Amino acid sequence: MFYRGDFVHTEELSNIEIFRDYLLAIDSAGYISHFENASTLLSRSLLSKESEDRIVLIPPGSFLLPTFCDLHLHAPQFLYQGTGLHLPLMEWLNEYAFKAEERLDQDPNLAKRVYTRLGERLVENGTGAVSLFGTIKEETNLILAETMQQIGIRAFVGKLSMDISTRPTYIESTHSESLASVRSFIDRTRALTAHLPDHARLIEPVLTPRFVPTCSDALLQGLGELAQQTGVMVQSHLAEAKDQVKAVRETRGTSDLEVFERAQLLTSRTIQAHCTYLSSEEFSRLARHGTAIAHCPLSNAYFSARQLALREALNRGICVGLGTDIAGGYSVDVMTAMRWAVGVARISDGARLDRIEGDATEPGDKTAVNTRGLGVDWKEALYLGTRGGAVALGLGSGVFKIGVPFDAQQKGTGPLDFFDIGHESVDLSPEMIEKWWCVGDIRNRTGMWIQGRQILFR
């Protein structure tokens, strides 16, 4: 197939590229095989040899953009999305999260319904790749993996590992039982797609220690060894909230970063969510390990007394992507996460300026005397929601280049209002893209493709 029109991507953090009137071709496996201006000799030659029914024309004012990546989402918590956000984190887990996860483990039909609707909502909102936390029961997570494969989304599915719990009925009895279950889950997840060619395998298992308060040292050590043996990715939560950080200090006598580090679970194949209570020195340690961060600004507003020091993490070379953190965050839309990421970063920068101007630097607060800004802009947030997330997941997508999977979403003008320009008669501009970024919604999304296969039609 061939696609002709305007394309937009952010291959680098602060640089948005607009490719006007380009021709993109995909091969039979869904990889990009050609990407050049439509006026080049090769593009014209390819077009002359193809029938019209194999050429998709992107309308003026519309453009193709890489799909979004959601680095942190609790799939079973989609059951109660948008409710229960009034409690501190540790109380919220007991009152809402554990109950919902246990309920799905007990009811496979409900799990299928919840996961099917979740997948449909992800497609509707342009999410093409997602890192999912599941439950502790193998079979329920296999339902999740199989559902995402059927819908056509790239899904990294994590069976929870937790041998400590405040809910007696929702726990794995021993670390040995937990590790055996994880090994089985890895094998069974891979078996789900073993009959398919490599390019059609969209699901992968992920090692998922919930977080330090629910995992014994023996379990974490075993998961670290399993990560080395299998090469499977790791996901968890790190330094998320004040009560969680305090609980780890009291029970382990050190930070949760130190606990993960000792278990060899901080690697270049690890994604840690939140990281709002990390020091500058700890950011440096994460960078040395190559560990990525899933920034979840919306859920941090509810469950953490502070936000991720995003600019510092980026400046230290840490790979950062965005997460919706359903149901700690109420929106499954990565665009919401992008907008919140910009907003909270601007507030952080304003607080920095207030400290400098008021000479109110707290002891040990290095950011207050840092003259560099802490804000991020919409272009940087777009990078985090597309290419940044793809890099964290080890995917080649997030850009339009020869040899990478064609994972794209089509943006139309939809409900956007243009008063000073005729969007159907002028070149696509950064201002037009910014308007979509700020006020666009699902009505602007008119198509979506994963590995060259269209999964959304409007």
Helical element count? Answer: 14
Largest sheet: 8 strands, parallel
Reported CATH architecture of the largest domain: Alpha-Beta Barrel
Oligomerization category of the chains in this entry: single chain
Q: What top-tier CATH class of the largest domain fits best?
A: Alpha Beta
Organism: Multifurca ochricompacta
GO molecular function, one term: zinc ion binding
Cofactor: Zn(2+)
Protein name: Metallo-dependent hydrolase
Task: Summarize the structure in words.
This protein is of the alpha/beta class and 458 residues long. The protein folds into two domains: 2-65 and 399-457, Roll (Urease, subunit C, domain 1); 68-392, Metal-dependent hydrolases (TIM Barrel). The chain contains 14 helices and 16 strands. The strands form three sheets. Strands 6-7-8-9-10-11-12-13 form an eight-stranded parallel beta sheet. It has a four-stranded mixed beta sheet with strand order 3-2-1-4. Helix 3 (108-124) packs parallel to helix 4 (138-151) and helix 4 (138-151) runs parallel beside helix 5. The two termini are 19 Å apart. Mean pLDDT is 93; it is low at 360-371.
Top keywords for this entry?
TIM Barrel, Urease, subunit C, domain 1, 14 helices, four-stranded mixed sheet
Topology readout:
Blueprint: E1 2-12, E2 15-26, E3 32-37, H1 41-48, E4 55-57, E5 63-66, E6 68-74, H2 89-106, H3 108-124, E7 127-133, H4 138-151, E8 154-161, H5 175-192, E9 203-209, H6 217-230, E10 233-238, H7 242-252, H8 256-262, E11 270-274, H9 280-289, E12 292-295, H10 297-303, H11 310-315, E13 320-322, H12 334-358, H13 378-392, E14 408-411, H14 430-439, E15 445-450, E16 453-457
Parallel strand pairs: 1-4, 6-7, 7-8, 8-9, 9-10, 10-11, 11-12, 12-13
Antiparallel strand pairs: 1-2, 2-3, 5-14, 14-15, 15-16
Helix pairs in contact: 3-4, 4-5, 5-6, 12-13
